[in-house]
Amino acid sequence: MKSSRDIKLFFKRLKKMNNFLVLNAIIIVAISISTIYSATITRTSSFYIKESIWAVIGVFSYLFVTMIDYRKYLKYYKVLYLLNIVILCSVFLLGVSRLGAQRWIDLGPVSIQPSEIGKVLLVITLSAFLSTYFKDRVVGIKSVIIAGAHMAPVLLLILKQPDLGTTLIILMTFSVIIFMCGLDWKTIIIFGISGMAFVPFAYFFLLKDYQRQRVLTFLNPEADLLGSGWNVTQSMIAIGSGKLYGKGFLNSSQSKLKFLPEAHTDFIVSVFLEERGFIGGALLFLLYIILIMQIIYVAETTSDRFGKLVCYGIAAIFFFHFVINVGMTMGIMPVTGKPLLLMSYGGTSLLISFIMLGIVQSVRIYRD
């Protein structure tokens, strides 16, 4: 009898799944694969094939994670926190350096980026920590400092790689989660002013030379058109040449003629906008807005504090990746090398994106 009830409960929960959430993601990935194909077809066909394989793995991972009761993460969050530290430390022992940073671990035919895993595990453990020790609401400065102490080891390990882009996303995601806990406005204003005052110190004493150069390039990309300003300038040329309807599929001249570096990764949006124009870009951005709003809706309709905070954290990760990457390609934000989730080429990024959506779906079907 118990087994029969469990089966009925399982299928009842399956009916609660928001199938449009994963459909939305799959549509974006389909657009991604076609754009990767267009951006790399003159060099190799392996990129879009690899991304297609990762997409299939991602969908199966999404289904697997969906079936796991998200409340188990709350039960074992301390173990997950230690696992996160171990994973991030491993990059310094086993990682390889690329473009001046040690962020990747090579596993034969594939590479993984531990910081991508780290930020998701941090959302889970931070949400669990806040749900456990602040059952009602977070109030003031002391609460933020305690929560910040939970985040600090993970943040410092990622910053040491160095990975400034992920560090910024974690800080902004932390701000969203702590705000949704009920932070009072007095504390928000104090930390806001403190943060602005800290910016000059960080620029002169914490940023590396190439990171400061990225900020200067953002402020004036024309100052070094053939050097640090090349990527952003070529990206803006690609976007502008797409006009209203775009040049058409496979007609992205900036990537075909190799004017636009990293066309299939950091600047994939530039390729898409050159081929599909303003109309195509508006539709793509709408897909992201709908995806993020669906995650927020799950958060808003969940009474469980832990599930609510996890969903807000995941929504924040998607949102800030979108804002930073798109802003970077349009020249309105500094270049940080952050991918557009579900769109930019990268196996780890794509897999983690589907896993995050699986966690959101789990909150939807297992919430009380």
TrEMBL record:
Which UniProt keywords are present, listed alphabetically?
A: Cell membrane, Cell shape, Cell wall biogenesis/degradation, Glycosyltransferase, Membrane, Peptidoglycan synthesis, Transferase, Transmembrane, Transmembrane helix
Gene Ontology biological-process entries: cell division; cell wall organization; peptidoglycan biosynthetic process; regulation of cell shape
Q: Pathway involvement?
A: Cell wall biogenesis; peptidoglycan biosynthesis
GO cellular component entries:
cell division site; plasma membrane
Q: Which GO terms describe its molecular function?
A: lipid-linked peptidoglycan transporter activity; peptidoglycan glycosyltransferase activity
Top-rank taxon of the source lineage equals Bacteria
User: Which reaction is catalysed here?
Assistant: [GlcNAc-(1->4)-Mur2Ac(oyl-L-Ala-gamma-D-Glu-L-Lys-D-Ala-D-Ala)](n)-di-trans,octa-cis-undecaprenyl diphosphate + beta-D-GlcNAc-(1->4)-Mur2Ac(oyl-L-Ala-gamma-D-Glu-L-Lys-D-Ala-D-Ala)-di-trans,octa-cis-undecaprenyl diphosphate = [GlcNAc-(1->4)-Mur2Ac(oyl-L-Ala-gamma-D-Glu-L-Lys-D-Ala-D-Ala)](n+1)-di-trans,octa-cis-undecaprenyl diphosphate + di-trans,octa-cis-undecaprenyl diphosphate + H(+)
Give compartment(s). Answer: Cell membrane; Membrane
- Pfam families hit by this protein: FTSW_RODA_SPOVE (PF01098)
Q: Which residues cross the membrane?
A: 21-40, 52-70, 79-97, 141-159, 165-183, 188-206, 277-297, 309-328, 340-360
What PANTHER family does UniProt report for this protein, alphabetically? Answer: CELL CYCLE PROTEIN, PEPTIDOGLYCAN GLYCOSYLTRANSFERASE MRDB
Which HAMAP family did the record assign? PGT_RodA (MF_02079)
Question: What function does this protein fulfil?
Answer: Peptidoglycan polymerase that is essential for cell wall elongation.
Q: Which family is annotated? A: Belongs to the SEDS family. MrdB/RodA subfamily.
Q: What is this protein called?
A: Peptidoglycan glycosyltransferase RodA
Task: Give the originating organism.
Answer: Fusobacterium necrogenes
